[in-house]
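Local shape tokens:
==================
===
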Amino acid sequence: MAASLAGLAFLAVTSAALLSPLAVVGQLRTDYYSTICPNLETIVRSSVKQSMAASPISAPATLRLFFHDCAVRVHLEIATDNDRSTAIDRCKQCGDQNIRSVEGCDASIMIVNSNGDDEWRNSDNQSLKPEGFTTVLNAKAAVDSDPQCRYKVSCADILALAARESVYQSGGPNYQVELGRYDGRVSTRDSVVLPHANFNLDQLNAFFAGLGLSQTDMIALSGGHTFGAADCRFFQYRIGADPAMDQGFAAQLRNTCGGNPNNFAFLNGATPAAFDNAYYRGLQQGRGLLGSDQALHADQRSRGTVDYYAWSQSAFFGDFAAAMTRLGRVGVKTAATGGEIRRDCRFPN
């Protein structure tokens, strides 16, 4: 999820209108494929292991891809403004109470449209790394190579499992994944609304509240930044200008970035390839890379949770697993609501 919140935008919505959580919980089950594809988790685990061996970028890229799939796509129903571009711009700037629903966790982020109008070609998604997509496509191919499983497992579920494996095989928690999602059929570039990297606590809370998630969920999910990297363009404005940034860290970043916004730095320089709680210890030291990261420790309303996770890795792991489960329920599709099981994750059937 390298810089998975590094595109963070403001979204004020009510969770009741977004999620229908009781229906979702009833649909999703950890044993959903027990008779359909009993070897599913073993197959995905092996495939992700191979992807991680091929590239150290694959794990954080896959976790970030899951976040962007679940949280990125909004469906706008604007009662007071029929101009779609103006409505989307307003969502990015200040929030809008007229947003009715969120469509997530349906693998729409992976769809490739021939006309170029798809989510991943939105400017806020251009920093998604190809290794994340490749990890999911390889896992899908491995699953479909089993005759019992072929074309019976959704890309959305494979992405959710691959994200868990990316965390677990990097040293993080091995949590159970709820399954039973269907894939979406629609992906449009202009529907993407993400948070941005300079957001403060209120803006972060507003975005995550729109997904039905709490401040604790948000802080735990931000811990996905314990591995991966971000391009200098997401944080260069802070160097020498943000008093919350450790001055030695600022000097280090100044050398790293130089004048090139396409250079990058690790989100957690202490253990950049491991999923652990070093991210939170870095925030305590003023070494948060993104403004939205450092805001979690700079604001006293969230500092206690950051300090708790910095002290207890097991507490972070438990809350991260719970938050990932809740995130995985956002906007889940069913066959009745237009979902399908894609044969190729890149194209609707």
Q: What stands out?
A: Residues 213-327 form a domain with the Peroxidase; domain 2 fold (CATH 1.10.420.10).
